[in-house]
Amino acid sequence: MNVVHIANLSYHHNTAGAGTTPALVNISLSLPKGSRTILVGANGAGKSTLLQILAGKRLTPAAAAVHLKGRDVFRDSPDGVTFLGTEWAMNPVVRGDIVVSHFLDSVGGYRHKARRDRLLDILDVDLDWHMHEISDGERRRVQLVMGLMSPWDVLLLDEVTVDLDVLVRSDLLAFLKEESDTRGATIVYATHIFDGLNNFPTHLAHMRFGSMVGDPVEWKSDPTAPLSASLYTLALQWLAEDREFRRELEKKGRKTRGARADDTPSDSEVFYKKYDYGH
Q1: 111 lies in a domain?
Q2: What mean pLDDT comes out for the span 21-33?
Q3: In a domain? residue 200
Q4: Domain of 34?
Q5: What is the pLDDT of residue 60?
Q6: What is the DSSP letter of 210?
Q7: If we measure between CA atoms, which residue out of 35, 1, 5 comes closest to residue 200?
Q8: Number of domains in the chain
Q9: Are strands 71-72 and 65-68 parallel, antiparallel or unpaired?
Q10: Listed range (82-96, 148-162, 189-203) with the worst mean pLDDT
Q11: Does some domain include residue 227?
Q12: CA–CA dist 11, 73 (Å, integer)
């Protein structure tokens, strides 16, 4: 059974802007129950937009099929779907003077005590922390406890492990892998940190400029394989190919990135005369 099913999905951030570049272009993706898929792609490839759509946070065109557990994610939202993204830590509410234990109880932690307590140990969270006094990494740990303590069927992760130290991240990934193996939970995870991930995914999906580069590929790590066969090395290869692909498009007229050979003066006196807005 494919828990994740997307077909014919194209998406513009600014639907009113004629001629705007689409964020997603004709995406099709199917992932089986219990899979753990890593989304690989450069910044701006569309990974976050895709996860937000899967989470039902953005309305898609009626012609597109975006289903989780056989249901339309926006118009017939399925239960058991958890989305964790980076914007949570910027919310003023979670930066207020509130004790972590009170905060978790306010979102139902007392109803999932066993899972909550296990996650508190895995993520090394102090229940007496005050949310406004802790670091971004510690605040991220609280977010993960909050988001994972209620059992989920589909987990959508958007860069939420970036603030974690390597030990906590390793323990968290082991927990998520166990959830997938024992409960058949499905995970889609966008990240730019590939160290320590070799044994985690079952599938890899490559995104480039809002499109999928082929179908997801199955991933089976080989502990005896050389470094050249690692997930990190494969991701590096894909990203290098993406950059070369973009540079070929730039030669054909696509807007270029990087330094420009313009007429900006390097002499300070000439520069300040040019940008003297007082006259």
Answers
A1: no
A2: 94
A3: yes
A4: 1-80+178-251
A5: 87
A6: T
A7: 35
A8: 1
A9: antiparallel
A10: 82-96
A11: yes
A12: 15
What's 9's domain CATH number? Answer: 3.40.50.300
CB burial of residue 76 (10 Å; 0-12, 13-18, 19+): exposed
The predicted-structure confidence for 211-238, as pLDDT tens digits, reads as follows: 999 999 999 876 666 555 689 999 999 9
| Those residues with Cβ within 8 angstroms of residue 166's Cβ, 6 or more apart along the chain or in another chain | 195, 196
Over residues 149-166, the pLDDT tens digits come to: 999 999 999 999 988 999
24 residue type, one letter:
L
Q: Is residue 276 part of a domain?
A: no
* CA distances (Å), origin 217, targets 158, 207, 228: 20, 12, 17
DSSP H or E segment with residue 119? helix 113-122
For every residue of 122-189, which 3-state class applies, written as one string? HCCCCCCCECCCCCHHHHHHHHHHHHHCCCCCEEEEECCCCCCCHHHHHHHHHHHHHHHHHHCCEEEE
The C-alpha atoms of residue 222 and residue 235 are separated, in whole angstroms, by 16
Residue 241: in which H helix or E strand, if any?
helix 231-251
Kind and range of the H or E run holding 234: helix 231-251
Which pTM does this prediction carry?
A: 0.88
Note the pLDDT of residue 264: 63
Whether residue 17 is predicted with pLDDT greater than 60 in this model: the reply is: no
Q: Which two three-digit tokens encode residue 43?
A: 């910044």
Helix 136-148 and helix 113-122, axial crossing angle in degrees, nearest 10: 150
